[in-house]
Input
Amino acid sequence: MVRMATAAESFVLAIGTKKGLWLATSRDRQEWSLTGPHFLMAEIPSIGIDTREGRTRILVGVRSPHWGPTVAHSDDFGATWTEPEQGAIKFPVDTGAALERVWQIYPDAESRPGVVWAGAEPISVWKSTDGGEHFELNRGLWDHPHRSEWGAGYGGAAAHSIVVNPAGETVHVAMSTGGVYRSLDGGTSWEARNKGISAYFMPDPNPEFGQCVHKIAADAVVEGRLYAQNHHGVYRTDDNADSWNSIAEGLPADFGFVMLTHPRRDGTAWVVPLKADGERIPPDGKLAVHRTDDAGNTWKCLSSGLPEHEYNSVLRDAASVDTAEPAGVYFGTRGGTVYASADEGETFKEVASHLPDVLCVRAALVASA
Amino acid sequence: MSCASGRPWWPVPEISLLLPSVLQPLAGGQSVLTAPADGPVTVAALLDAVASDYPVLARRLRDETGALRRFVNIYVDGDEVRRLQGLDTEVLPGQEVLVIQSVAGG
Output
């Protein structure tokens, strides 16, 4: 079944790369029109598409190697961009810190219009209540006593995943390296929640924190169920991250960066396995997405439409789902190719190729672009 | 920092800040910003003046701690300020301050 956009709708796919942003639109998720680059020569490591409040706002983290990081937004599908004069994210003077890169932009639930979260480097979480125009530093996490022991992954020390319970005050954050932290009070206080997640690269492989969790995502339906792609290890929790259990059996490798969950259906998640830490390519050079429909008990290999050989990796935010039925699945490689699936990963079609390294993709079904 | 408007008729010593083309849209399209100066001012003070008129431009040059961004180079009469006194380098009336991005990149 192909879900077509209605006359008043479009599918939008925002592609953030190492050298700019491209925007693709489609009626059927098969044929795409591409515009760009926007922000040429600046990397776009984070994108949020906010469809609340009757408008489509595309928020982007922008980072120029020369001119530094910033956050911009467009309410007209990239025709114009707005950047708050004083900067949307700016560390308070007393922290002595400076923003390096915005890794995550996460519009909150429909019930909390205007609220947008951001994760950044250095490791920090931010919250906006004005649609992403100005953010406030989360002091609970910034002042956390573990901070001095958090480390930097290869890409930098960042809070890269934010998952907010739409119905309550629970927030999960994942950072590299530090692991998963949970707040039960909307972000006021935070506790490490990594029991069961391996940190094999540390003297104690089962520490309270210090894990290199690459991505987390929440189950669409089951309260307290989340999935994690770790630096080796794929996990699920059913108790709100109090404990994690491996669900890697059946996958060709337990390394990777991506973790996606279905927008509505419980038990469905996608990963893109890479062979190993020391060999960051698709296993045997065969790129494939793997989907579970039973919360990680079994996995299905999906590669229809993908190339026979691919030696580029897929980064943690270079994958996304949309909210249509059936859900669309999207990802891009460090080789600059972007793929879209209109049928939950059963078949893929190339959207673009020969772009710079893809750092982030986000997709949405929106009022006509 | 200002353009030519509002100046007195008599000559006022100025310091000129020369911008690379990529930053000129953030300064209203100007390639040169001028600041009246009747004595030496530091590069930091000059950039503070930029920040009041062109805050986005200022954020491209320095981060929120006030530090010069790593791949932004500022020259005072041909000398890179990191080889002088950094942002505390004094600029004299009549001198030119040149902003150039580093050739770093990939």
